[in-house]
């Protein structure tokens, strides 16, 4: 699995891959009030895309996503979550696909297995981009973080895939924060709000945000330690045992 | 698309379908404090499964899900939502698959296109089961609603697919209620709680449930109309404009 693969090699080995299924990874990175997305450029082109690839015949879908991400960006040990399978007819533009292979000296035949229709399964993750190191893999010649509102046009339906991933990230942000270590163990309401504001790309109303967060029953307020200035310090919180646990009868 | 299809006919027409992709539908039905799931029995067998099938070569994934559901259960005009792609190796037991085809007189070869590995994309829906009429399609000889805790063993990984769909339904219940007509336009907190209790299969604590619901900012409380008994009537609610709208600054 360590071996890098180029398009040319993949094209010759149809029997090693599942026909019709690909994987695309949407890696969101946040840091210092910024939210970015990780893009890779196809070799010898100006074509930017999500890091993606094909699934081996004896490889679980999830393992494929991890392998592909690592092969194209050097990211590893990232908690990837599946969010949607993109299955519209005509989602892959065959002219663009031919441009990608031509740039590495391969003439793509319409009969080639990768020229057939593909359903792509999207995986996403949220990481602190200041804590990861990127390196382009064998089929990328660059990979980098882009702001969502100034990123380049992407190939195929990848702009739509990013949009759908962002919707999912916003919907599921609280679960992701509870089960990840993106926030320190103990944090202030202001820190939590700042992360939400970064992901939503909007300022939030402090009182309403606090009411919503406390209403969800996922936060546990810590006792303030006694100190001369304690009454001025903000309350500290941590994530409680389980989402919604307090709404169920024992 | 109206034409019914049997396994025998599907087997002969490999070139009409996408290789390696199937669809399974998890239709939850609620009514009168009960939550059920819709299962179909393969012809001449005692094998129960989710209504599922294959995707035509020029058919969007979503259209395939709707066609398959209608073909196997007669359900139509149901709002289906995709929730997960099941892509583990070995998720389909080839012995069970041979049993299904043998029951309709077809010997399934290991080289047949449906004997290869499939990734199945799951779609789910929530309906009021008292309002729909079922009828088995060409490859089912029965379909019916089953309670989740007393349903028969299902083929392949279908029990796991139901479990994952139920998790998603619980996570997304509020969105589903907001964008569907499963509740009347105006409802009481008790009615909303009852629907949550049915889907969660648990009693909820009234005060905490109310606090959580109001904290989400999705409910709009109606003015009470003046009447002699008005002070005794419960408050009435409806779903407000948009989820979370009140936490953003203008």
Please provide a written account of the structure.
2 copies of one chain form a homodimer. Chain A is of the alpha+beta class. Chain A is 29% helix and 26% strand. Chain A is built from 6 helices and 10 strands; from the N terminus they run H-E-E-E-E-H-E-H-E-E-H-E-H-H-E-E. The first copy, chain A, has helices at 7-12, 61-73, 94-102, 158-178, 189-200, 206-216, and strands at residues 17-31, 34-42, 48-49, 52-56, 81-86, 119-128, 140-147, 187-188, 219-221, 236-239. In chain A, the strands form 2 sheets. In chain A, strands 1, 2, 3, 4, 5, 6 and 7 form a 7-stranded mixed beta sheet that branches. Chain A has a 3-stranded antiparallel beta sheet with strand order 8-10-9. The N and C termini of chain A lie far apart (48 Å). Chain A binds chain B through residues 18-21, 55, 57-62, 64, 82, 84-85, 87-89, 117, 119, 121, 171-172, 175, 200, 202-205, 208-209, 211-212, 214-217, 244, 246-249, and chain B through 18-21, 55, 57-62, 64, 82, 84-85, 87-89, 117, 119, 121, 171-172, 175, 200, 202-205, 208-209, 211-212, 214-217, 244, 246-249.
N→C terminal distance of chain A: 48 Å
Element string of chain A (H = helix, E = strand): HEEEEHEHEEHEHHEE
Q: What's the number of helices of chain A? A: 6
The most extensive interface between chains reads:
A-B, 42 and 42 residues
The tally of strands of chain A reads 10
**Which percent range fits the helix content of chain A?**
25-40%
Question: Please, what is the average pLDDT of chain A?
Answer: 89
Low-confidence stretches of chain A: none
Radius of gyration of chain A: 21 Å
The dominant shape of chain A is: elongated
């Amino acid at each position: 699995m360590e071996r890098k693969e180029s398009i040319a090699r993949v094209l010759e080995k149809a029997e090693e891959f599942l026909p019709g299924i690909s994987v695309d990874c949407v890696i969101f990175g946040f840091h210092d009030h910024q939210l970015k997305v990780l893009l890779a450029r196809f070799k010898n082109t100006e074509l930017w895309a999500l890091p993606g690839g094909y699934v081996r015949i004896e490889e679980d879908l999830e393992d494929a996503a991890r392998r592909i991400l690592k092969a194209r960006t050097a990211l590893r040990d990232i908690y990837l979550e599946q969010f949607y399978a993109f299955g519209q007819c005509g989602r892959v533009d065959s002219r663009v696909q031919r441009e990608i292979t031509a740039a590495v000296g391969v003439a793509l035949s319409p009969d080639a297995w990768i020229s057939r229709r593909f359903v792509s399964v999207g995986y996403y993750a949220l990481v602190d981009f200041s804590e990861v190191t990127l390196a382009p893999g064998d089929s990328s010649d660059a990979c980098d973080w882009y702001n969502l509102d100034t990123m380049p046009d992407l190939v195929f339906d990848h702009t739509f895939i990013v949009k759908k991933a962002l919707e999912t990230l916003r919907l599921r942000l609280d679960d992701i924060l509870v089960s990840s270590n993106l926030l320190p163990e103990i944090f202030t309401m202001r820190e939590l709000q700042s992360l939400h504001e970064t992901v939503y790309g909007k300022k939030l109303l402090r009182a309403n945000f606090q009411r919503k967060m406390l209403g969800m029953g996922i936060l546990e307020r810590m006792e303030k330690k006694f100190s001369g200035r304690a009454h001025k310090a903000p309350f500290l919180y941590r994530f409680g045992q389980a989402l919604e646990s307090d709404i169920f009868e024992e």
